[in-house]
Structures
1.
Amino acid sequence: MSIAPTIKRLSAAVLLATLAACASTPDVLSEKEYYEKARSALASNNFSEATEQLEALETYHPFGRYAQQAQLDLIFARYNALDSEGAAAAADRFIKLHPDSPSVDYAHYIKGLAAYYSEMGMAVRFLPIDPTSRDIGQAREAFQAFSTLVTNFPESNYAPDAEQRMVAIRNHLAAYEMHVADYYIRREAFMAALNRAQYIVENFPETPAVPDALAMMVELYRMMEMPTRAADALTLLATNFPDHPTFDEQLRFKGGQVKQERRDLSSVLDIGLSDD
């Protein structure tokens, strides 16, 4: 049996497959064409299209004259396309590849913003939802990125905004600790709650959560029969925050910061009942 026809058929099949593959492969544009398409998309706020063109440019022309600027534009495009994770990855890559670039401060800034909004979630970014009751997630990573920017590039145009966001993150972290402390109190884990309140006072001393944390410490120390420490916390509270609502008009401590849930059976049975 001759194998010539079989070889011919195989050759024809390979040729057809190759032609089909070539037909399905998009034409590779020049670096300038990709970049111009990307810039046009950015100008029209079509960030998804801009991302696609910039990624193609980086794939086919990774060392061209537009490569570095394209990487910066990709950070911008992904961030504005609400791709926080992708923006952070692009920013981190730029920082590693171009640590001496005049624009590296921008990469640190967007890296911080991406982590900041990724941590809070899209709903928190656009809706009036209290983020302090959520898990802190990437808040610390955002703080680190902003801190690096402010420390290494104090003259950067992005430094003032980064500093303000660091203040907001501190406030967020402290408020989150208060939510956790309240949770422990509801579970009657008083020592755990006390540790959280003390952590706020020691690590976030300039945040709005401090007076509530001090008031909580006073009550918890008293509940745990530690009068000396309760008195110390009370002195700090009265000296620094005399207008705190746990004081009456004569500056006597009346408490109220520690609110326990009723966990007895009668509190469950009374739900929905009222006196006739």
Note: The chain has a mean pLDDT of 84.
2.
Amino acid sequence: MKVKRDQITGIVLVIIGIIIIGLISQFKKPITPEYPGPMLMPGIAGLGMIICGLGIFVTGCRQSTPDKADLSVAGFIRVIITFAALWLYILGLQYLGFLIVTPFLVFGLTTYFAKASKADTKLWVRIVFALAVTFIIWFMYVQLFGMDLPVGELFE
């Protein structure tokens, strides 16, 4: 039996998720309704990686078609551009804050990937999506968890 890339990817995600959960179990501050603490978000991410990794692994086991070709040059360039956009996003968070930078990042990446996949998404749909994602994240952190998001050095 030949091991497929999806199976390897799934196993790696499960291992990373287990490592994350193992590392956050060392935190001393427990999760309480008043203050979720530093364990909540990494715990959700670790659990999500485990669940997604298991799903990818099972899908890889069921898949009868051979793996697709390795990452093409265009795909590699998309990965580099995505990492560069995330790096600029981190810089933007520091100076301009979450509410200004996040909608631009989400809009820019969705537009970039829609054009790369030749998907026909309307401009207003991408704008609404970017604003909705920004609002949902802001609402979860600020209103539900009572945490602060970066406001940016220019606005402090």
Note: The chain has a mean pLDDT of 85.
3.
Amino acid sequence: MAKRRLVIAGAIAAAAALLISGCSSSDDSAGKRACMILPDSESSTRWENGDRPAMDSALTGAGFETDIQNAQGDTAKFATIADQMLTKGCGVMILVDYQGAGIQVAAKAKEAGIPVIAYDRPIEGADYYVSFDNESVGALQGQAILDGLAAAGKDPKTARVIYGQGDPTDGNAKMFYDGALSVLEPAGVKPIFSMAGTWDGAKAGTLFEQALTAVGGKVDAVLAPNDNNAANIITILDKAGLKVPVSGQDASPAGLQNVLLGKQTTTVWKPYTLIATAASDLAIALLNGETPSADKALADGTPYIAVTPNSVGPDQVAEVVASGDANYDEVCTAAVMAACEEFGVTA
């Protein structure tokens, strides 16, 4: 995988998605404020460490005020934050949905004439959806399982694969899962056990422990929906003395460590800078009174700006760290240092 091609492909997709024409904006302070609600701090480290600073920098750099808050995994808090923001005034609302809380917020914002951007997770009634190409993310996860099985000499048609998936209240979870199935089913993979969907890593570990018991401790691979789930699943595999192909996404420090150590086949890298650039460009256009359009749409017709994701194995971890999307000190701890040196990961 060419080093520059990974990042440039997504950047071009994000940039090409916006075909902008428009009119002048209001000059009142509320109309110049971008409001954003993040979902939690548990499902991924990216929300606070990546998306928040990237969005804030882009929007304030363009001369706009920002109000970015985190619902901390609480649907009631999500609604309260939204009401406070709407009372103060927003020129655009950027929402990362949490268990459907974004739907009512989107409806209230639109009643107030405020355009709504669904960020990374689809929201019914939003004016725009900005995310990575989620079915492609899932397809990369499915391919990781097939590649891992092939490396282990396992026939996919007879392999014992346990399936996990994200929280069913998150619209992206189905797209990830469908994308994985689009690769696994044609190869003849059939799950021996399907776990309930969750983004809660600890819960995923418990569910996997139960699944492993149910299948008699015999498993050839695990379809994990993200690095957080994968890390907890790998803890259970370690306790059982097992090392099998495991998928993931987010290129989190723990995910990258597990990839380097050979405990996770790949992670899907979704550079937050690319989605933040696409979303902030869209928000800036709306704040300037313009009417953007996109080159894709969801099934309900919502304009969809899709950014290209990348699969990361041990050979690509160095690129993720070099890009700034992962911190060297967090990835290359003492337990992982030898692997970092082997695969050329440097500060």
Note: The longest strand covers residues 33-38.
